[in-house]
Amino acid sequence: VRRQAEACGLPVTLHPIGSMFTVFFTGHPVADYASAKLADAGRYGRFFRELLERGVYFPPAQWEAAFLSTAHGRGDLACAGKAIGQALRSLAD
Asked: Which helix (H) or strand (E) holds 28?
């Protein structure tokens, strides 16, 4: 997500822990509620809808975590990666 967002010129901060991660559309560190509120929630909403249209189910709000599991195979990850790239490019236009 981070590499593809950077390639599109979109500011993004990811917070991973274990197999979970959260995406914030901001170029600033997110360390607490106040800094998280500065992220672009509208852009996250558009990102969510773009992914949903492509069959990838991400958390509907930037306040929630996405999860990876051993149930996700290489094909699933490749499909999600492609959809994420497409969604991010559509946000950059």
From this structure: none
